[in-house]
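Table S2 (continued). Query chain:
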Amino acid sequence: MSSRPKEPHAAAPRKLPSGRWQARVTYWDRETGQRKELTRTFATEREAKKWAREEEVKLRETWLSPQTLLTLTVNNVLDQWLDAKRLKPVARSTLESYIGHLRHVRQAFGNQLVKDISPSDIQKLYASLSHTHSPRTGQYVATLLRSALDWAVTMDLIPTNPARKVSKPQVPRREMIVLTPEDATKLLRVAQQHRLYALWWFIALMGVRKGEALGLYWEDIDWNTKTVTIRRTLSGSGRRRYLSAPKTHHSTRTLAMPDILIQVLKQWKEQQQKDRIIAQTNWVETPYVFTTKRGTPWDASAVTHHFKRVLRQGDFPTHWRIHDLRHAMATHWLASGISPKVVSERLGHASVAFTLQVYAHALPHQQAEAAEYMAARLLGRSTHDPHEPT
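Corresponding output:
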């Protein structure tokens, strides 16, 4: 066990019989390891807490290695934090996202010493991002920076986290777009004329994520049981494409397929065989279901581009996203009375509670039915539960 003394920390103020408040800061002598305590009394609890926090910071600065504080830059902290993340089971796409978003921090003050970074510097970064990027990007950068600096505090690299004193950018709540059954029918009809029609049908009818569909292998489909197993996600574009495990543990799942989708996939398999013959030596043999004319898997960005083309051809709103097909299917499942547990399992969510939180808008009619049912029971009227057989 390490003999290194524990770091200083401010204890909760103690109320004295006199009514005053005693502030306390505990620390350990670096040489002897002996526990010590600083105290001071104040008229109010708030004053006591403020003094204790300030003294804790001062003690941490002397407790930490002076050499560390004099040489540690923000880039050093970010590099070490990312290295620590790589030791955990984090998806490659997630790490790529971390690296990409943290470039904003590195450009702003990456070469500066961490001890010199102030809440004001961080606030300026957030303000700058608000003018050049989306609110969600700003919030994500703030979350990553706060997490990295929290880790540095935990690892005794810095005494406090200046990002904790700055509010993260707020993201306006985005209203979920839900396609009506008529919209979905028309969209799929238009998509039939497009090379990626089978992909659109698969996402729309199965409610899977785009990356899960792009990462699908032919061996994942069981024609006899009419099921498909989601085992992986394909992310990125060009040379930066990579396969990873699905988003959560629950995202690895086996789903039943409707007969119409099985027909669509069999037709697509025939088309893929024709593409192989036409491409001849240019054909690249891969296990993927949804491929280009050369047999290679699709880039996520290219798929999005083609989806926008379908929207324009069908005179649909161009702000619709591929992910909205998933939302549409989930909403209609719930609105049709499908068990939330079944819907949650098909979507690959971590829990039923999360599904209900995201799709609460799909259940208003059930709320009304439940209210009427309870009122009728309390008033003694003859009625039946709308969900019980008559």
